[in-house]
Amino acid sequence: MPKQLIGQGLPSLTAEGWAWLTPVSADVASYGAPVVVLGIGAAWLIVSLLLKRGEAGRLRRCEAWDCGFSAPDSRMQYTATAFAMPFRRVFGLLFHIVERVDDSGKLARYELHISDRLWGLLYRPVADLVMASARRVTVIQSGRLRAYLAWSFATLLVLLWIIS
Amino acid sequence: MDNFLSPVGWLLALLQALLFAAMAPLLAAWIKRVKCRLQSRRGPSLLQPYRDLRKLYYKETLVAETASPIFRLAPYIIFAATWMAAAVIPMIAMQLPTAVVADVIVLVGFLALARFFLALAGMDIGTAFGGMGASREVLVSSLAEPAMLMAIFTLTMSAQSTNLSSVIDYVLSYGLVLRPSFMFAMVAVMLVAIAETGRIPVDNPDTHLELTMIHEAMILEYSGRHLALMEGAAQLKLMAYFVLIANVFLPWGIATEFTPQALLLGLLAIGAKLALLGILLAVAETALAKMRVFRIPQYLNLAFLLALLGMLSNVILEMG
């Protein structure tokens, strides 16, 4: 990949064999993925062997903690909206967020609309420009063969004139 | 790469990893004891965390009926990943083979892996506490990780290496000089460490008051040996951050060769450094109050800003 991007590859990416990732040289940065997996596996094995011996290995199913109130059901679960709420507050500057609760009717309604500010500021003008110019260009595409032939002929004439 | 195959190195690395696991509860107890003393309380014995872990080990493990296999796997994954992260950090000796296996970016990756499963486990049961804790944890870490990586990049730009052993070697070879970039990076890493290990003012490890907790909310459903693993992993993580700060920024005393005297000196040096850092944390925790959740971004932005200043002062003052 770096070869395609910058014209030269990373010289010693796998210089120490397939198990090692050494982008520059082994003294500077290295990563041995198989050894890492082995290490995590070994740590796991040690811990689980230590913990699952005899009497200490008992495990019992019970109800989840509910603070002594009614049993938790799916309505009480943390939703994606709730999960993302701190992010909405912290990164609110980057997004246009409309959040409102309408409880005037029989049922309360919660509305949340999130849009990207950068989309409107950065990408939208460019996209609009491209679309508008494309619309202008379609004027010359009338769909009649004669018109296309005329355009081709005119282009050819112009090109010939430029060459000569 | 040549020290990857040295048997003495592997033996030391193994010993160091075991020492890490053995000393982590002691560090937690030390901090708690100093904190109690500062608040004119007597405080528990230094062996209390070991007794707690032993108690949890012998207790029956309860698992909620709604739990999926992830809930039961997560403690093992989290403990193993945190332990690996700790094992990578040079504690009493440098040039260990573990430093070659994983560099400092992989270290951050280990901690991220543990955090990912911690957040999953928090949400797994389906109670609101766990979801809230997971949401807050992810928020804190999404702000802390850039600051951490920025501070690390400042270090690695100076040392021109992401290998922790080489970074320490570089700091040692330059002797005791005041580098603005390192000072900024050190304060940034300290702020990140406090946030990541769930200490005051970001989170309070001693409370079970649901509105103020992050880490405890996620592990609320754990009991028995699962809880022991979670507590152990949290203690290991605190220890790992402390050793990282102590040995990367102030590495004097660490063993550069594998002789018994040098190793003993390294052990004493890291013990003293950890004790001092523990006192510092206890003082900070006593002097500060816990912040509101939505003040945490400001706190972590400060850490990021300091790391950025470190990077800038490195580029402006120290390069060329």
Describe this structure in words.
The complex is a heterodimer of chains A (164) and B (320). Chain A folds into three domains: 52 residues, no CATH class; 39 residues, no CATH class; 44 residues. Chain A has a two-stranded antiparallel ribbon with strand order 2-3. Chain A is flat. Chain A has five helices and three strands. With 164 residues, chain A is of the alpha+beta class. The longest helix of chain B is centred in the N-terminal third of the chain and has 32 residues. In chain B, helix 1 packs across helix 10, helix 2 runs antiparallel to helix 10 and helix 5 runs antiparallel to helix 6. The model of chain B has no long low-confidence stretch (mean pLDDT 89). With 320 residues, chain B is mainly α. Chains A and B meet through helix 2, strand 1 and helix 3 of A and strand 1, helix 3, helix 5, helix 6 and helix 10 of B. Strand 1 of chain A pairs parallel with strand 1 of chain B, so a sheet runs across the interface.
Strand order of the largest sheet of chain A: 2-3
Please state roughly what percent of the residues of chain B sit in beta strands, choosing from under 5%, 5-15%, 15-25%, 25-35%, 35-45% or over 45%: under 5%
What's the average pLDDT of chain B? 89
Report the portion of residues of chain A in β strands. Answer: 5-15%
Number of helices, where a helix is a run of at least 4 consecutive DSSP H or I residues of chain B: 12
Extended strand count of chain B: 1
Low-confidence stretches of chain A: none
**What is the rounded Rg of chain B?**
19 Å
Number of domains of chain B: 1
| Main sheet: strands, sense, barrel of chain A | 2 strands, antiparallel
**N to C succession of SSEs of chain B:** HHEHHHHHHHHHH
Integer count of domains of chain A: 3
The first-to-last residue Cα distance of chain A is 45 Å
